[in-house]
Specification:
With 856 residues, this protein is an alpha/beta fold. The protein is built from 25 helices and 31 strands. It folds into 5 domains: 172 residues, Alpha-Beta Plaits (2-Layer Sandwich); 111 residues, GIY-YIG endonuclease (3-Layer(aba) Sandwich); 73 residues, Arc Repressor Mutant, subunit A, CATH 1.10.10; 178 residues, Rossmann fold; 189 residues, P-loop containing nucleotide triphosphate hydrolases (Rossmann fold), CATH 3.40.50. Bound molecules: adenosine-5'-triphosphate and zinc ion (ZN) (2 copies).
Length: 856
């Protein structure tokens, strides 16, 4: 997806006070003897260890650029005389009581020393910047809190994050003062603060933006005000008739507050009354609520638990494969080592049970675990499995209300949660005693964030696990080549589960060659063979899954007379026709018009809807199999919260016979009665201009094929394709990951593509095409000269228009950088962009994407 990049603050900066002499906590930069070794090397104390141990090209290597010549000069003189009281033992203590902060460094300070806070910002790319901490604030300010400080020429104080408190020298007296402390308590602990500074550095994203990704906005919003407003019913509400006269939602919220008999914040009331802010604001306006400002009290509200999709899970007796896998994982847990393990288990091999047992082991020692899962569609089943096996599970997902998110975050932070299950952002869950991080379906593309900061949850999980000295467990039937390569180069341990639970066979995969005319059906997408197989399956009361990875009805709207294609004016991409509502929609920016009934160019009356989307497939399926009960699952039908659960539990209970949809039906689902999987067009992703096209195709086909044969009745797969001899499709049809991985690694090696080398992408976009291209060219010149000064071995490609050359009205160009060494790659970009300013009148922004997953 190509949503909202916050533009890199290329044009901002302006004069900013006093760059800090001390970089974000990068212990490599300090002189020996400046710090007590425990301050940098204590287990779990920070990301110091990450930098040294991660030099494997391509894989999770950190790219902390000890070698970054551009920064090196500034980093000398880093001093921290204060931290010497720390001991190794203290680490254990801080683990136990998170957010209890270490004693401030100035306990050992002498008279003339000044207390200094290093502060980072959302829209100032560099820093941190130093500020003096006034004496009366010394005891209150800790890393992980927000402050108001003066910044540059701005009149109003700016919000910044304190990432370090330290002793400054005499010269520090010319620093500006911290104006105000905004939080009562740190919003994250020191290891998380260090994770932020590492991410900011590695992904070249302002640290303030990284904090924003880390701390839910609801937490920032309410925890940010030091005092909170509590609501109580106004005296006038004692009159029943006043309450009765209110609209339903307001009535409900008010009655809840009355019966609760204690004050609540607006967000608590929203959770309780399951309402938005609107009815509460309406009550406020009517004067029916009294507001009272007081110190925050601990929230202890029940959340709305969504029910899972009805699957039953008991603890299983482990298979031999599972026991062996578990032994290797518990060995890593017991060793308290920062070890990466890749659990490569074929579809249906029972990986979830292994995760659960591993977590049971973690919980036994009073520690907690994070389980990252790709998508909301996976969550109902996964969450159910975890909820039934652990006393306290927090599930984070994108459809939560801000109030729910806030509540869960508080529970997690207070140490009340054993297991956090969620999407990529759950990697930041502030668990006080984290013992294990798991990425399920670790190959999944959704682990990469496509807006700033453009982080990959696998890499961040790796960094977090390394710094806490805990294991990271990656699991997949189709591991990413990055993770696979890591097992081959000794950076991760491979655990294999090559067979399915109960020795069920892998399903038979049959390829249908769509180039052969007889195989295709006239006027439809379902081949003769697939049609027969669906009928047969339905007759046997089996269930069917059909995959088509394109939503909408028709993917092009074209005039047969003049050839005109109806396209988005802002992106120039073809619009997709959606039958419901007769809309033509741009899938890149959501631009929507009524589908034109005739050609907008030549007025020809007979415009054609070409290409195939899930809506059209649904129409065809219903016509071909009139008795089947069919549901469609794609992002158009799954907009409403809870819609996944609804469809999936109907499918589980047998109220549905056939489920068709996009890749969201391809992964993780475990339905024993699915006897047939059909892939409508396996080539859809194969010819994308992206070196990962083959990998994605292999993963998608293997994963969806894996949805069948999971019960005792067997299963088969029919894959329709125009390229049956393609290696990715061949390997998927034989469930042969090794063949695929070996062949694909050899391909990548030719060009040093990841995982053998590293790639970065810089997207330059602007409103005027020439100006945008000229900016891209001058950035290229800077990159070239940075490369030369650093003596870096980095290949530069472009600038060129990417496949999506225009998006939301902006012209786009991109530059690709490639190197065997991620450190050199990062350093080159950093040096080239550090002083690169684009005149405001040019209206050009650029975005840096390190380890891009998206080349469009
Ligand atoms: N030891 C066991 N004995 C019997 N059944 C088991 C055992 N372990 C797991 N199962 C069951 O096997 C099925 C498949 O397990 P699971 O969904 O965890 O597979 P998976 O490896 O995650 O597959 P996928 O990669 O396709 O998601 C589930 O229904 C699960 O309850
Ligand atoms: Zn026309
Ligand atoms: Zn568009």
């Amino acid at each position: 997806m190509l949503t909202g990049d916050a533009p890199h603050a290329a044009t901002s900066a302006g004069p900013i006070p006093m760059p800090s002499a001390v970089p974000p906590q990068r212990p490599n930069d300090t002189r020996p003897g400046d710090r007590n070794p425990n301050d940098t090397a204590a287990p779990g104390d920070g990301l110091g260890e990450v930098s040294g141990s991660l030099s494997a090209p391509g894989f999770l290597s950190s790219g902390d650029d000890a070698a970054d010549a551009g920064d090196a000069a500034q980093n000398r003189g880093a001093q921290n005389r204060g931290a010497q009281h720390k001991s190794g033992a203290q680490h254990e203590a801080t683990q136990g009581q998170l957010f209890e902060t270490d004693p401030p460094p100035w306990e050992l300070a002498v008279e003339e020393d000044v207390a200094v806070a290093s502060v980072v910002f959302r829209d100032a790319p560099y820093g941190p910047y130093d500020y003096r901490i006034p004496a009366e604030m010394r005891d209150q300010l800790h890393p992980g809190m927000r402050v108001h400080v003066p910044l540059g020429r701005r009149k109003r104080p700016t919000v910044g994050w304190c990432i370090e408190t330290k002793i400054g020298s005499q010269s520090g007296k010319s620093l500006s003062d911290v104006a105000e402390i905004l939080d009562d308590a740190p919003l994250c602990d020191r290891p998380l603060v260090r994770l932020v500074t590492w991410m900011s550095h590695y992904y070249q994203s302002p640290a303030g933006q990284v904090f924003d990704a880390l701390i839910p906005s609801s937490v920032r919003a309410s925890a940010g005000t030091r005092e909170r407003t509590y609501l109580t019913p106004a005296p006038s509400t004692a009159d029943e008739s006043v309450v009765d006269a209110l609209p339903k939602k307001q009535q409900r919220a008010l009655r809840l507050l009355i019966t609760a008999g204690k004050p609540m914040t607006a967000s608590q009331l929203m959770v309780h009354a399951e309402c938005t802010a609107a009815p509460i604001n309406a009550l406020r306006k009517k004067g029916l609520l009294s507001e009272d400002t007081r110190r925050e009290m601990a929230t202890s509200m029940p959340v709305r638990w969504q029910t899972s999709d009805g699957e039953k899970t008991e603890a299983h007796e482990l298979t031999d494969d599972q026991s062996l896998a578990l032994q290797r994982i518990t060995a890593a847990l017991d060793a308290a080592a920062a070890k990466t393990l890749l659990l490569h288990g074929v579809t249906g091999s029972g990986k979830t049970e292994v995760y659960i047992r591993a977590i049971e082991h973690v919980v036994k020692f009073g520690r907690a675990a994070i389980v990252l899962v790709p998508e909301i569609s996976l969550t109902p089943q996964t969450r159910g499995r975890f909820e039934r096996r652990f006393a306290s599970v927090a599930v984070l997902h994108s459809q939560m209300t801000p109030a729910e998110r806030h509540f869960q975050w508080q529970r997690i932070r207070r140490g009340e949660v054993q297991v956090v299950v969620g999407p990529r952002s759950a990697v930041f869950a502030p668990l006080p005693r984290l013992g294990l991080i798991i990425l399920d379906e670790e190959h999944d593309g959704s682990f990469k964030q496509d807006s700033q900061p453009r982080y990959h949850a696998r890499k961040v999980a790796y960094a977090r696990a390394q710094s806490l000295k805990i294991p990271l467990l990656l699991g997949s039937a189709t591991p990413s080549l990055e993770s696979w390569h890591a097992t081959q180069s000794g950076h991760a341990e491979l655990i294999s589960m090559p067979s399915r639970v109960g020795n069920r066979p892998m399903p038979d995969v049959q390829l249908v060659d769509l180039r052969i005319k007889d195989e295709r059906s006239r006027g439809g997408a379902i081949s003769r063979q697939l049609h027969l197989a669906v009928n047969e399956t339905l007759r046997e009361n089996g269930q069917v899954i059909l995959l088509l990875n394109r939503r909408g009805f028709a993917t092009t709207i074209q005039c047969p007379s003049c050839g005109h294609v109806v396209a988005c004016p802002d992106c120039e991409m073809p619009l997709t026709h959606h039958r419901d509502g007769g809309k033509a929609v741009c899938h890149y920016c959501d631009y929507t018009i009524a589908t034109p009934p005739w050609c907008p160019e030549c007025r020809f009356d007979g415009i054609r809807y070409g290409g195939l989307g899930t809506q059209k497939l649904e129409v065809e399926v219903k016509a071909r199999f009139p008795d089947a009960r069919v549901a469609r699952m794609d992002s158009d039908t799954m907009r409403r919260p809870g819609s996944h659960q609804k469809v999936l539990s109907a499918f589980r209970s047998g109220e549905l016979d056939l489920l068709l949809g996009t890749q969201m039906i391809a992964k993780g689902l475990d339905f024993p009665n699915v006897l047939l999987v059909g892939v409508i067009n396996a080539d859809a992703a194969l010819h994308f201009p992206d070196f990962r096209a083959g990998e994605r195709t292999f993963q998608l086909v293997t994963q969806v094929a894996g949805r069948t044969g999971r019960g005792n009745r067997g299963g088969r797969v029919i894959v329709q394709t125009f390229s049956p001899e393609h290696m990715a499709i061949q390997a998927a049809s034989r469930h042969d990951y090794l063949q695929f991985a070996n062949a694909e690694i050899a391909n990548r090696r030719k060009f040093n593509y990841p995982p053998l080398g590293s790639v970065a992408r810089i997207i330059i976009r602007g409103t005027v095409e020439d100006v945008t291209e000229a900016t891209a060219n001058s950035l290229l010149l800077r990159l070239e000269s940075a490369r030369e000064r650093l003596g870096a071995e980095v290949r530069l490609l472009g600038p060129a228009p990417p496949p999506i050359a225009k998006l939301r009205g902006k012209y786009r160009f991109h530059l690709l950088l490639q190197s065997l060494d991620p450190l050199q790659l990062g350093a080159t970009i950093r040096m080239a962009t550090k002083t690169f300013k684009i005149p405001e009148k040019d209206d050009v922004q650029y975005v840096i994407d390190i380890d891009p997953m998206d080349m469009l």
